[in-house]
């Protein structure tokens, strides 16, 4: 059923086996080591009489369908003979062919089945030049189906690319009520989603439909772009109806089935209906084919002779689907001047089989192995791997045995006599989908400018689209506030911004402290000098560890404080460069934990100074226990452990991560580290602040100590600077509470 609406081409082969078909003629049969079968609808039949046994349909008093089909069968023979004459492709192997007239889809398989059944050990291999249904790409249902023409999916995608190229969004889609058009319409509706294209009108027509009514409806809806995805019989009726009803200045996009129609461009009045653009094979002529046709054609240019001959043929009964009396009357010019549609598809189909045989038979430049029995499944395996050049065109297949297409966009030039088809663009699927149209070659019916086919006129700068009606392409315009998308007034994405009245959302530039910026360099050099200074002090203290000066300064506790200050200073370097999750974790945890350890040491140190001068005399037992059990180290260990646990909870409950701050200047996006769970963060900070408060309290209590014991005053001064720094930071920096950005360290 899927093949009923298109010309079907079947290639099958038998291994070194020949047979006779009654009433076959040399024109439709040629012997060879491998036979290729071809089905072409040379005749058409109006009605079919039901039968209950397989039999060949008698093509009696049936008119020739078209010179076009005979041209295609001639092309198959041309390709086979060209391959046989080649000394490199299949050097010592010859191809033969068996061609049948498919004048009825349901009644003409007797001869074909006879052909296939001659080799019962071979399964069938099909290479199709005309079937475009997308369902045939499903290899679960059609595992051995190969085609050399694009699927409807590729054709529809190409049409959509053309529509988008010219900025149209208000289009009509006309087809017929068959598999070809139905499949195309389904795919068109699917792939225009999220493209901005609106399908304003669609209809599936039958041959006796009211075509005039259809074109009038389209014209009334102000649709200026019409896609006709139908066979040429239907397309011809639509175009003729447009001419008859004075439909003017439209753009007609022709599917490949009628894009190269040779009769329509000559239709009187076709110029006034507008511009016709088609999609077609890029190679419109095959080298050597014209000469081959002239050498084989039997017809004569004498019109009187042909009329008499046709009259004689009409009195004959054609009783075999390998007989075509009309074919002998065709002139070479009639064959050559036919539409080149499917020409390269048939040509490449024959060469596909030949190249696959070349691989299977392990051919070299001189000979092929005749000991190998080629089976269809072997060919299928090789076809998928093929990648060869044929007259400048790449022939390659994907995993579904669909070709990698290289198509052309053709413009009908109906203003010259005879009308011409000019290639104005190309469409390639590899290495990526690329559509190119030469605008200088496009001549529009309205003298140069691209025709307008949109439901609404685009809004001016600063105005947004307000939907109007069912279609998203139809809208009115309303002025937008700032930072809004110009078409819907919805807010721009977080990574975008716009001014009031802007037509587009602009991408914010991503910023973060760079290593190479002057402020960053100053901070890092300062941190480096501080680290060097602290390390130098550490070394001096270590060298003079047993001296009274070091012991009075705190002894071992000095090394812990210095090490903590060095490690917390190292965290500065993680604040520069592009932030990462690891950097966010290191910059926060290292500074917070080790600086708190340092403060806990200072707190103990302040407490001890006060104890020596004030508490030792008043509370001698407490002081004795403090000294006996190393109270200072117990306090440092306890406070550090509590703070360490709080840090672990902080980074576990809601891990610190990288975020983009959108509250910075609207044209910039600042990468910062999110502070994690706000409650756990407050607990972590509170421990540090509380220890600092105790340290400040104890050191203040020692303000009236002797002048030679001024350590408490130094600690007091340091803690005041510590809190002033936090106050200044909170004053200058923005901060948020509970789930929003908290201060940077």
TrEMBL record:
Membrane-spanning residues: 521-545, 557-577, 589-613, 633-653, 679-700, 720-742
Domain G-protein coupled receptors family 3 profile: 519-732
Protein's GO biological process: sensory perception of taste
Signal peptide start and end residues: 1-24
GO cellular component, one term: plasma membrane
Compartments (UniProt record): Cell membrane
Keyword field contains Membrane: yes
The UniProt record lists the keyword DNA repair: no
Protein name: G-protein coupled receptors family 3 profile domain-containing protein
Organism encoding this protein: Cyprinus carpio
Lineage, broadest ranks: Eukaryota, Metazoa, Chordata, Craniata, Vertebrata
